[in-house]
What we know:
5-stranded mixed β-sheet; 3 domains; alpha/beta
Amino acid sequence: MLTKSSTELVRQQNSTLVLAALRRKGSLSHTEIASETALASATVSAITAELEHAGIIAKSEQHVQGGRGRPRVLFTPRRDCGHVIVARISSDIVQYSLADYGGTLLDRFEEARHHDLKGTATFGQMFAAALERLLQRSRITKEDVLAISISSKGLVAADGARLIWSPIFGREELDFEELLRPAWRAKIMLSNETLLVAQALAVRAQEEREDFRALAAISLGHSIGLGLARQGRHGDLDVSAPNFGHMLHTSSAGLCRCGGHGCIEAAAGFYGILRTAFEVPSDTIPAKFVPLSEMDKIAASARQGHRMAGYAFRQAGIALGNGISRMLSLYEPMPIFVTGPGTRYFDLLHKGLEEGLGQSLQVRLQGLPEIAVAADEQRLVFDGHLNRALSTIDADIAAGHG
Length: 402
């Protein structure tokens, strides 16, 4: 019995490798699949035959140019065998997207998140209604949706799909599994948003170089987020989202949205920068939302040499640098990618960031980590959603047909 179970497990893992390779490359021949996955030819033949019979992949012939020789047989994922819904919950909007099994975006719309509407119950009703509207727009049924992948800033439970704490709802939990069952049979997934950014960046890095080991993504905006991606022994990604924004920086940083004093976010989040720039008392209740237009004004003042505006961005940079140095001391040297709407002020944050990093012995001995700006956070979040959701679907398909 143990041998049979082990054989089935290996078969499922191999099927997942084949599905992932096909989705990555679009169309592959038998030989190319074997090369991409390092699987034996006979194994590839058995898996592709099984997946084709199940309607997961399709086989086609590509005739050789000039009409001579045997046609080339290609295998391609069937994009219509299922769909994924992606929902991104941010401070000001909720974005809903629909993609097919191949990862192609089919539809997208956004709804403003009204700050005067309080409570998860009201939001849950609006969320469920928006999912129904997405189906109607695309003329598909709930049965066509294989996964609903949701993201938010905040703390996400390790089990299930519960949002434990967020800058939007505070301590009021929101259980998306409870919200959407039993109406939906799709897999319900909830992820921290910056974790998805790290996931997407790491997948890209793995494809570009063989020596990838680890990276960190820091999201700057209304909230401060951290995503860590590290490669495991067997090539799998270990991705996490430590509660970086609410790590203690210094009590003088002031009151944070989480209710504590001195968090990194209280100094480096938009509301922290605004509070410092206007010399607002540190115990003032943080603004729930700071428009980018307001931040642009503060940044313009800083670039014109206004002392307090420049000081606010410098202090934010120091808080970020101190936090990153602590993170690196716990893990290993790794490149840092800065994302989010706050990247538009990176020129004002950079000096303070290096100053904060320079206070670490490890950085003084080993030098500054590589720091790069990844401006398109929205695209990275979406790619991270698809990477995680489609990989989960692949595993479910492999388990069902293994």
